[in-house]
Amino acid sequence: IQAAVMDGVNVEQNSIESVEESAAKSAFEKLQSDRKTLPIYPYREELLQAVHDHQVLVIVGETGSGKTTQIPQYLHEAGYSQRGKIGCTQPRRVAAMSVAARVSQEMGVKLGHEVGYSIRFEDCTSEKTIVKYMTDGMLLREFLGEPDLASYSVVMVDEAHERTLSTDILFGLVKDIARFRPDLKLLISSATLDAEKFSDYFDSAPIFKIPGRRFPVDIHYTKAPEADYLDAAVVTALQIHVTQPPGDGDILVFLTGQEEIEMAEEILKHRTRGLGTKIAELIICPIYANLPTELQAKIFEPTPEGARKVVLATNIAETSLTIDGIKYVIDPGFCKMKSYNPRTGMESLLVTPISKASANQRAGRSGRTGPGKCFRLYTAYNYYNDLDDNTIPEIQRTNLANVVLSLKSLGINDLLNFDFMDPPPSEALLKALELLYALSAVNKHGELTKAGRRMAEFPLDPMLSKMIVASDKYQCSDEIISIAAMLSIGNSIFYRPKDKQVHADNARLNFHMGNVGDHIALLKVYSSWKETNFSTQWCYENYIQVRSMKRARDIRDQLEGLLERVEIELTPNPNDMDSIKKAITSGFFPHSARLQKNGSYRTVKHPQTVQIHPSSGLAQVRPRWVIYHELVLTTKEYMRQVTELKPEWLVEIAPHYYQLKDVEDG
Ligand code: ADP
Ligand code: MG
Fold first, then answer.
1. Which of 97, 416, 488, 653 has CA 20 to 30 A from 47's CA?
2. Element containing residue 66 per DSSP (H, E)
3. Long-range contacts of range 509-512, CB-CB < 8 Å, 24 or more positions apart?
4. How much distance in Å is there from the Cα of 66 to the middle of ligand 2?
């Protein structure tokens, strides 16, 4: 109305603004009224009272009840944020980002201001931030700079049931600081019912239960095991879609990772295209850890009338993210899980059957807003007889070198007596110490060395940090941090469109010219991109993912900042390949392998037969001696990211680890 009485040109503009404003206002009001419909809302006062009365509280509530998005807001509204930040940890990056985005909307503030998130290599917070979502790994790193978490008034360790390595370590650390910080409130929240265990661990902390609203879920099993669960999942999704009326509910399919999700997406697109307009629209929404942020929001958009959404998700949709409107769940019964062999020190990511607890969480996703259906693509016999009851905590099946290094730099030396909820195998602890000793991060008494202290500054695996620290000696830190950044983004740098495979392969070969090895090839990709002033066009022409490159650049910038912190000068040394390779070897010497007569390789320490991954530039070349970045187990045990090396370097660089006889040919 005010706009209308004003004169002239501005009238129209102002009235448009006020339309937008009122739309925004009503969206905001809608969000506020939605908040009040969540299962947690009726318990708001009771919960605040319990937090007030107890220092440590275990909170249990079904996925979707509002724990993650509401509790930090309630605490903020109750004034806790005046005394310090409210921190909430998430095991997954995507969850931290997506929940922070949601909460900033609900609070009507800009993301990164009052509400922010912090994940590795990406800090979206500011001075103003009072509600901070972060990965559990990031809070662990914050201990390094602020050992008593003085800037926090509340720490909520969320999704505690996931029992990630970082969460388990956090348990021990927060339990400890709670003793000398009586003003700090500690919330441990979980979606499953084994809350007793958390309560016991935290000296019988009270358990606050948020009663769930759960509708019955019909569970269907297959009569016989499925030979190809991906195909079975796609077929099941399509069957649901064509036989059930659109509008009655969306479909959620659990797959194990990005590749599977992309494959399922392609098959679904292909088959629905074949059906043309005979069927209702099927909107395909993938969600996995590396999905670009812009696309993540898509899964939360309401499904348009007459259409159906099919969400293709990793484990992330099991408890970390709640997608409204799901009526059908398709559960092939697998997830990707890390496993670790403490004897050899080898770690691999394997597709593994899920636990009964996971299967039940997955099924539960279909019964949130009404009765649901869950299609298990395995037999009832399988479920009852083959699946474990619970997933083994990560701490018992992973390489601990990174965590041991962090704990050491926090001054926690006696790891065998650390207050673990479930202790790791002592073999794994010893193996971690052994590796850190080999990397000269600890001395023979297990004490952190200067190199170890520098390494701990980098949010990277110790071998990568060592490579960076060693680049000082070889005067090539500039190149090495580019390589470290490129290695950190994984294998999503090159792409290979179906219709242009030959072009893509040729573009790729360019970087491998002279059989320089994969590390140097990655460096060449980065440097060439930099020379074009970070051109997007150049990426297209070379079949390189711009998004991955931008991420590499961000990571590199941060590593550059960290170099300064540990007082290593940024030294370019672009033409001295041997120095660069020696710096790499300084971090990765435990990963050496030698060519065998039959064309396969054998790792030098803890002999094991391995192959060069077909995607490597050296796959055909097969040098006699190589070092590799990592092993991946698919059909065979493959070395990924491989570089040739001179065997004498091993003795020169790691005389405490290799003897001449280890590296003699013949
Ligand atoms: P819990 O932590 O108990 O599993 P959440 O607080 O994550 O529950 O979710 C509560 C509700 O908030 C969900 O049912 C969903 O409707 C909504 N929600 C959560 N995250 C988002 C998001 N990123 N976008 C849209 N809605 C969301
Ligand atoms: Mg949650």
1. 97
2. none
3. 509/617, 510/542, 511/617, 512/617
4. 7
